[in-house]
Amino acid sequence: MRVDIFVDVVCPWCFIGKRQFERALAMRPDVSPQKAWRPFQLNPDMPAEGMPADQFFAAKFGSAAGVEERRKQVAGIGSAVGIDFAFDRIARQPNTLDAHRLIRYAVKRGRGDAMVEALFTAHFTAGRDIGDRVALAAIAGENGLDAREAEVFLQGGEETAAILGEDQEARRIGISAVPCYIFDRQYGFAGARDPEFFLSILDRARSGAAQPAI
Asked: Residue 114: what are its φ and ψ, rounded to 5°?
């Protein structure tokens, strides 16, 4: 079974969805899907250097009170699935192109799942700038990859066109929000659903029951 998972590593719901999917898989130990991490930039027009997080969220949600209300909501849901969101540590909202490139780099070296987890954790619980190439290389080194080799890769342009092309293709086929999961290119849905919903799709996909993308 193949599962294409469209995420952005600055999306808290993607992190929550990852946890929920993992909980569902723990309930189906006989199912070992092939996960394909696919890029989707929530903020494709973000400057390469990112921008102050407070400025970004104030523009997005309209007021400091609105930002705080949404953060509390997300933090409460995150806590229930084992994520300690630390939004107060996030000083900059990054451009995630290089983070997606690093995921692709890690996938080719058998460390894709670990890198996705590491990037979510670095951004949301440690407040590290995952738009900074030096920081990204350090994260690579902390998660089973060669930091210097990763930095050389990031300083080049390899995988940039592929990432941008996949992002555009995702939008062309109608993906407008993440996380988005597509099972065996047949069964699709968006959102950080609960484990029971994931289980229903896993079981349908495993049995081959007809179900249109949703």
From this structure: -65, -40
Give the Cα separation of 114 and 98 in Å (integer). Answer: 16
* Preceding omega of 29 cis (within 30 degrees of 0): no
Q: What is the pLDDT of residues 108-144, one digit of tens each?
A: 999 999 999 999 999 999 999 999 999 999 999 999 9
Q: With residue 187 as reference, give the H or E element that holds it.
A: strand 187-190
In angstroms, the CA 100 to CA 180 distance is: 16
Residue ranges covered by each domain of the chain: 2-207
Q: Do the beta carbons of residue 147 and residue 141 sit within 8 Å?
A: yes
Residues in the chain: 214
Residue ranges of alpha helices (H) inside 62-192 are 64-80, 97-107, 112-124, 133-142, 147-155, 160-172
CA 196 centroid distance within chain: 21
| b/e sequence 157-196, b meaning 16+ C-beta within 10 Å | eebeeebeebbeebeeeebeebbbbbbbeebbbbebbebe
| Residue 77, pLDDT above cutoff 80 | yes
Give bridge partners of residue 87 from the DSSP assignment: none
Task: Return the CATH fold of 2-207.
Answer: Glutaredoxin (3.40.30)
Q: What is the pLDDT of residue 206?
A: 86
Q: Is the pLDDT at 153 greater than 50, yes or no?
A: yes
Q: Look up the pTM and report it.
A: 0.94
- pLDDT computed for residue 209 by the predictor: 56
Q: Which of 96, 83, 9, 6 is nearest to 45 (CA)?
A: 96
